[in-house]
Amino acid sequence: MRHPFPDPARPEAPARGWLAIRRLPRLTCHHVADPRWTLPPMTAAVIADLHVGMPWVSPDLVGRIVEQVNALRPDIIFLAGDLLLDRNMWWFSRVVPAAEIVAILSALRAPLGAWSILGNHDWGDCDLARDTGGARNSVIEAHAAHGLPLLRNEARHIPHGPGGFWLVGTDSQRAGKRRGRGPDRYVSHLDAEAAFAAVPAGAPAIHLAHEPDWFARGDPRAFLQVSGHTHGGQIRLFGRTPAVPSAFGSRYAGGHVRENGNHLIVSRGIGYSGLPLRLGVPPEIVLLTVTGT
């Protein structure tokens, strides 16, 4: 279900389609109920695919999105990757440095913290990573400089209720491209074995992964995966999404997916790839409620 974010102090209407370049994203709410969650109910706000660049997603808009999310008072905040602008849009946009973006996002506040992962554009469209062969990365360095936690194939124990839970963050599954068009054409930095290594068997775990495709493996170690990347296809016409950046087409385009007894939440994100155009797929913030029943 979708609900506009009410903020009477601001004149902006919730985002609507491709005209929503400077407006606040709409709020999309999902409820995941699973008996493996034996803890008190928890709310999580998900921010995905900001792709910050002028004038489409400006630093000012990011600041207002931070206010919007903080006003929701979630228990925890997930930043699902892709802070950087798509390189294909550079010729008609102004690139915003990662340090400036992360400085704004560091104002996010939640009792259980704000946690971030890297997206494919945070690798492929980072000049520092390209110039150093991946030895350095401006998004990684910005997170460290501003104290915003970044999970790179690792897990953190989150104290919430009796026993707490594990938040597992993996790196991008499409961090680069190789020649050819086969299934191995993407360079993957995702290492699930390293990421889940510290998680005790049977412990409640949430997997934060930029691309949704890992979910198809039916990994039993996390009852819930939270992703972005797809932009919901960015264009939806007559009930169809012509192109989704996933090996599974529109199967994981957006929303709440249930497969193999597990749950997947895919945010349709905020920014743009290729062109600053969204038709039928407005920018969104996801508010996720997790309960045991």
Automatic annotation (TrEMBL):
It comes from the Bacteria. GO terms for cellular component: membrane. Keywords: Hydrolase, Metal-binding. It holds the Pfam family Metallophos. One of its GO terms (molecular function) is UDP-2,3-diacylglucosamine hydrolase activity. Residues 42-231 form the Calcineurin-like phosphoesterase domain. GO terms for biological process: lipid A biosynthetic process. PANTHER family: PHOSPHODIESTERASE YAEI, TRANSMEMBRANE PROTEIN WITH METALLOPHOSPHOESTERASE DOMAIN-RELATED. This is Metallophosphoesterase. It comes from Mangrovicoccus algicola. The lineage of its organism: Bacteria, Pseudomonadati, Pseudomonadota, Alphaproteobacteria, Rhodobacterales.
